Amino acid sequence: MERRKPTYGSAVRIARLILILVKSNRPVSLDRICDQLGISERTVRRYRKAINENLSSGEGQDLLKVSRDGESESWYLSDQAEILNGKYLQVVSLHIAMVILKSLGETLLADEIKGSLNMTGSDLKPSDQMKLEQFEKKFRHSGFGRKDYSSKNKLLRKILEGLIDNKKLQVRHYSHTAKKDKYHIIHPLTLLMHRDSLYLHAYVEGYRQIRTFAVDRIQEITARDEKFRYPKKFNPDQVTDGSFGIYNSSAKDRIRIVVSFKEILYEYLTTRRWHPSQRFTEIKDSEFQMEISLKNTDEFVPWVLQFGPDAKVLEPDSLRDEVREQLELTIRRYEWLP
To answer: Selecting from 3.40.50.2300, 3.30.70.640, 1.10.10.10, 3.40.250.10, what CATH number does the domain 8-79 have?
Structure first.
């Protein structure tokens, strides 16, 4: 039988196949490859055979390799094999998780990650273990302004128990507003990390609504012998949708906020996600504007104040007046200095 000669179209698709694998830098499923190239599984397998017959890696191995998990099949390039090694990738991921979660300090959560890291890392080849010896220096977390949860292990264990088992909890929580401890029976719904601090979204039976608790302000937790049904339609993103941070608001109407910033802040602000509703204008006359829609401005005011003379609230008037008042109070504190 005469061997089928490659065509120009085949060459283009083979090049696209290699490009897909290079860009992904991880195994790509066979189904996804076929879908992206718009060809059959039989054809793409023929391409892999042609690639391996004509190209090889630096070590003389097949350029295009296959990994299988049950009936599923994924392809990757041979020079990606080391970084894509399952155990190695798991260990690297756990190391990075430790860095990101540095604010958890010496807590049971951090201890569990360390335990998993040691258990998984022990299975690595000695050469791979040597590569990870200085890993803690290669990924760092500044820990700037982080809270210390090392004394909250018992509380965290109770919170996790309530979250996993859908168990009601009784909490003693210090209220900054009331300046005293308050007792609540809660249904724990979501443990949230925000700016290196832990918070708990929970349904409060006494208020019949979802409230947000700072974990470091919880003084005591008791697990109750009662369970609750986790609400299927609950969406934690909706709890904070109207806020500029994590605290929910009972307000129904949204406030359209417009702030003008100096050009120097353009890259810093526009390359970050502050809120789902954020929109930015192009720079004009050395300034640009940010528009955002909120229900609660409590967390927005201190945020915009940090930019000092580089920011100016344009709308609404009430928010502009509030920011101006805060700035005037700051000036007065310095006027009284001897």
So the answer is: 1.10.10.10
Give the whole-angstrom CA distance, residue 258 versus residue 272: 17
Name the residue with tokens 């001897």.
Answer: 338
Task: Look at strands 197-204 and 209-214 and give their pairing.
Answer: antiparallel
pLDDT at 121 > cutoff 70 = no
**pLDDT, tens digit, 9 for 90 and up, residues 229-268:** 999 888 888 888 888 888 776 667 899 999 999 999 999 9
- Between helix 41-54 and helix 8-24 the angle, nearest 10°, is 80
What is the DSSP secondary structure assignment for residue 297, as one 8-state letter? -
Place of tokens 């200085």: 134
Q: Say if CB 13 and CB 39 are below 8 A apart.
A: yes
Helix (H) or strand (E) holding 127: helix 126-131
**What CATH number has the domain spanning 255-335?**
3.30.70
Tokens representing 26 are 């991880």
- The residue ranking higher by pLDDT, 261 or 175, is 261
Residue 124: name the closest of 135, 115, 132, 114 by CA. Answer: 132
Which secondary-structure segment (H or E) carries 173? strand 167-175
Please check the confidence at residue 120 and state whether its pLDDT lies above 70.
no
Q: Answer yes or no: pTM beyond 0.70.
A: no
Helical packing angle, 8-24 and 30-37, nearest 10°: 130
- Which helix (H) or strand (E) covers residue 238, if one does? helix 236-239
- pLDDT bin (cut points 50, 70, 90) of residue 1 is very low
